[in-house]
Design goal:
single chain, about 300 residues, alpha/beta, Rossmann fold, Dihydrodipicolinate Reductase, domain 2, 2 domains, 7-stranded parallel beta sheet, 5-stranded mixed beta sheet, Acetaldehyde_dehydrogenase
């Protein structure tokens, strides 16, 4: 049984996601939704997606009964009204915006963190946080699990400027808040700082995320072992995720590590690992959620 979904948003994230899901045997994309008839993202899928909608969520009202869930790749400002609409219709939501409305989740930590569990109801909202949140989560978890006295956490991500669309640029403040919130959730530390650099270099740079955590003590051997296990799991849905700087003591009392994400190239070239990691994670969570309730017969 395929998962019938609609995608809200026809920018970089929505376009990359649609290309991904069209090739995924588990999904059936019934509609992609935008706000402009001349949208390049919408026109790209003419003849490939059965319903090309250019007047927002009201344009898919006749399709709602056929949907299982919705991916929201619009903006943090619009997500609440989208969720209010679809939850009343018993649809699950995968939020790819940094709205902080849904439950923060990253697939690789579902079995490792008590706070990261699948929803209790079919109509449930999952926040995929941000690309920086998804790329840093494994590092945050592994380091914090085997460290004591955590007092500061910093997450710095650098992405190619070409991969950041208008919605991403408008939502920078929300990006920072959502990423910092995830860092606190995972590490238990409330002194967090998130940084996002839109690098204009030509040729474009690959996505990199560096985590710096101030600690009293840490066990690097156990950190690396835990991290290796998580990366193996991440690579099942994001093959381009790798640790390029292993956890180490960068200065007295600070543990640092860096991950790089090479994109799968569904839409933009491989430098757009930021699109790849959040969309791959979103698809993974949607699949897990749907299968949970299908198994239960809901």
């Amino acid at each position: 049984m395929k998962i019938n979904v609609a995608i809200l948003g026809s920018g970089n994230i929505g376009t990359d996601l649609c290309e991904r899901l069209l090739l995924d045997k588990d999904f059936n994309v019934l509609a992609i939704v935008g706000r402009r008839p001349d949208s390049e993202g919408l026109n790209r899928f003419v003849g490939r997606v059965p319903n090309i909608v250019s007047n927002g969520i009201l344009g898919i009202s006749l399709l709602v009964d056929d949907l299982d869930g919705v991916f929201d790749a619009t903006s943090a400002q619009d997500h609440l009204k989208h969720w209010d609409y679809f939850k009343e219709l018993n649809k699950f939501m995968i939020d790819l915006t940094p709205s902080k409305i849904g439950r923060p989740i990253t697939p690789s930590l579902i079995s490792r963190r008590d706070s990261m569990v699948l929803g209790e109801n079919f109509a449930f909202n999952y926040s995929l946080v941000t690309c920086g949140g998804q790329s840093s989560a494994a590092l945050l978890h592994a380091i914090s699990k085997y460290s004591t006295g955590i007092s500061e956490v910093e997450i710095s991500s650098s992405i190619a400027s070409l991969s950041a669309g208008p919605a991403t640029r408008r939502n920078i403040d929300q990006y920072i808040e959502s990423t910092e919130n995830l860092a606190s959730l995972i590490t238990g530390c409330f002194s967090t700082k998130a940084i996002l650099v839109l690098n204009p270099a030509d040729p474009p740079v690959m996505m990199r995320t560096t985590v710096n955590i101030k600690v009293i003590e840490t066990d690097l051997v156990k950190v690396e072992s835990e991290l290796k296990s998580i990366v193996e799991e991440i690579n099942r849905y994001v093959p381009g995720y790798e640790i390029v700087v292993a956890p180490h003591i960068s200065k007295v009392g600070v543990v640092s590590a860096t991950a790089k994400v090479t994109g799968a190239g569904y839409f933009l070239p491989p430098y757009a690992g930021n699109l790849d990691i959040i969309n791959a994670a979103g698809a993974k969570v949607a699949r897990k959620h749907f299968n949970k309730f299908r198994t239960q017969g809901a």
